[in-house]
Design a protein that fits this description.
By secondary structure, the chain is an all-alpha fold. The protein has helices at about 1-15, 25-30, 40-50, 55-80, 110-125, 140-150, 155-180. It holds the Pfam family PAP2.
């Protein structure tokens, strides 16, 4: 059963990865780099400060950072246990996929997916009552995680699990945020 799921994951990865067009390689390489998204992170912080007084905004930023860094730590812990090779490090795939990056750490599950979905989901939950437009923030993590398949470093299953973990972590931290911050309202 598990072997069949891994086979489907591999086949879907090869299919999606091969949809890549060379002309767009530089775009996807740019998108996959977390440092290029730093202005968006500051925009998230700014949204908190525009929506709330400075104490609640600072409190929100701290919980957002706690959610992201906890998710990142948990992701790396699981990667160290699961030890799943990335597609770009899997010898039987090297001749059938496009590789634009070559990280050497493990694949399961995607840290890009888990942290970006944790951050976005937390921000959306905190700000959704202020503006429905905040849901547009989900464009970022979807582009971010799709880039990981395109550049050849994550299977779709890695991304799906990372998304789920990120969303769950955001919900947990949002609940803690609500309980801890009652006096700020």
């Amino acid at each position: 059963m598990w072997e069949q799921v891994e086979q489907w994951d591999r086949e879907l990865f090869v299919y999606l990865n091969n949809l890549g067009i060379e002309r767009y390689d530089s775009f996807w390489i740019f998108v996959t780099n977390p440092t290029h998204w730093i202005p968006l992170y500051f925009l998230f912080f700014l949204f908190f400060f525009l929506a709330f007084h400075w104490r609640k905004a600072s409190f929100s930023v701290l919980f957002l950072l706690a959610a992201v860094f906890t998710t990142w730590g948990f992701t790396n812990l699981v990667k160290g246990i699961a030890l799943r090779l990335r597609p770009n490090n899997t010898p039987e795939l090297l001749d059938v996929i496009r590789i634009l990056q070559e990280p050497t750490n493990y694949s399961f599950f995607s840290g890009h997916a888990s942290t970006s979905f944790a951050a976005t989901t937390f921000v959306v939950m905190v700000l959704t009552h202020r503006t429905r437009w905040i849901y547009l923030a989900y464009i970022w993590p979807f582009l971010f995680v799709m880039s990981r398949i395109y550049v050849g470093v994550h299977y779709p299953g890695d991304i799906l699990v990372g998304m789920i973990v990120g969303i769950i972590m955001a919900i947990i931290f949002y609940q803690l945020y609500l309980k801890s911050g009652r006096r700020l309202y």
